[in-house]
Amino acid sequence: xxxxxxxxxxxxxxxxxxxxxxxxxxxxxxxxxxxxxxxxxxxxxxxxxxxxxxxxxxxxxxxxxxxxxxxxxxxxxxxxxxxxxxxxxxxxxxxxxxxxxxxxxxxxxxxxxxxxxxxxxxxxxxxxxxxxxxxxxxxxxxxxxxxxxxxxxxxxxxxxxxxxxxxxxxxxxxxxxxxxxxxxxxxxxxxxxxxxxxxxxxxxxxxxxxxxxxxxxxxxxxxxxxxxxxxxxxxxxxxxxxxxxxxxxxxxxxxxxxxxxxxxxxxxxxxxxxxxxxxxxxxxxxxxxxxxxxxxxxxxxxxxxxxxxxxx
Length: 312
Ligand SMILES: [Zn+2]
Prior knowledge:
Elements: H1 2-6, H2 14-17, H3 21-28, H4 34-59, E1 70-75, H5 80-94, E2 98-105, H6 118-135, E3 143-148, H7 158-172, E4 176-180, H8 194-209, H9 216-219, E5 231-234, E6 243-246, H10 251-258, H11 278-291, E7 294-295, E8 298-306
Parallel strand pairs: 1-2, 1-4, 2-3, 4-5
Antiparallel strand pairs: 5-8, 6-8, 7-8
The chain binds zinc ion.
Zinc ion (ZN) binds at residues 76-77, 80, 194.
């Protein structure tokens, strides 16, 4: 235990084993302890305080240092998870966490190609996301598709949308939840799907705690209420970002992963092709290297960390 290793009372052991101090103290009774005992009590108090602080710190293990936890990621489109948190997801997978990705939409609108169809694009986007997340270590079985049409999340039946996300949270019972940031003080999103995914996820986080929201989930499906202990919101506004994960060691992997979303980049977004020319690929990666935030000389991903749905 950390207590024994790091917060050892600074008295030589032999003082407690030998005939001198301890025996004298036992024989003499409390009133004879005087200054030495008082000092010892203060030290015990100090150690207990340290232990309390240390256990508090233990609860706040760095996100990238978590092991064997369940991580639930909500993403509006199949790629926001990669752009916003791909490096962190790679680190979490490396650390043997179970990472589950929930994709709100099928992304079936984002192409300028006049010969593209929504049905075909949805298939392309699914395959690209599976390849992209696969590179980060997330198996395709861990990707859940809610299947809403691209750009239409605002117009979905909201009670149903919240109920579905609530059921996922109650079923998965994540140690950590990642989602697009609804903003704490500042609503950043003026883009369909992103704002709805952001608000809906946090609404579902709240609903998941109280079983009387969607009580049929408990009564008929056996899903118990669940309080999400820790949340990290990607795409935070710069003013609200309060948590930075160093992704230096996996940054190139993240960029490689992001380029598997081929249809979302030029030239494939204009006229679909399933692959890159070497020149276009280099250009895209160089752009990502330039745009990825850095802190203290390292690539980072920025989050807003929260432990309550109504954090303030
Ligand atoms: Zn998006």
